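Marked as duplicate of an earlier ticket. Keeping the data here for the record.
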Amino acid sequence: MLTKRILVLIFLIPTCVGFAALGGWYFAVFMASLLAVAGWEWANAFSLGNYRPSRWILTPGIILLVLSRQVPVPRLTEAILAACILAAMTVHLLQYEQGRDLAATDLMVTLGGLLYLGWLGGHFILLRALPDGMFWILLALSAVWFTDLGGFLVGRKWGKHKLSRRASPNKTWEGYAGGIVFAAALTPLIALLWQLVTPLVTPLHGLVIGLVVSILAPLGDLGESMIKRQFNLKDSSNLLPGHGGILDRIDSWLWAIPLAYYLLLLWL
């Protein structure tokens, strides 16, 4: 299993970095594809609880919401989100009239997936579009990876106090603190490396992004664990051997990228 995990990382990380470097429509289509697969996993998870989100709204909606961020048309994303909400209510209303008693809950699951994966996911494109956006994307993701590394190493050696007994009982407060320390110490070093290429990125940016991401982004992991626990799932899918599904890999990203984007909007 460890070998499989390493092989997947050897493929996955350079792929993500490569598309982030390409930017533009290449990156937008790549992220829309990843998030669409995550939407499929989202629908599958909730279907285990007898919920039926509309895949005909969810998957195209996620793709359009993400791709719309690449189009320089004011309010296009908001218009697409409004259209998806109206279409979803129409579809689930028709299902209710056909006898589906949980149609209202199905509607909320559809809308939740659109907002969580489509609207939040679109921030990948927004962050990439900032000046030197490739470096900001990689800085935010580095903060996630350092948080995970610190949490794993410190938690395995010194972890005793449970962080989340129900959602993720293997995580500890010691591991959580270790993740913060690792991200706060190492993300500025990545920023220092990027500063050799662009003066816009500084170690102070790395420190702030590292701290904010390491403190808050683990909630994305715990939130996704909550969904899986409710439906007795170990992984969102088995697409990535040793890692689970796409949703398992990007749950913290979906917190880190919007956090970094809005921090930088205030800062730059």
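See parent ticket for discussion. The chain has a mean pLDDT of 93.
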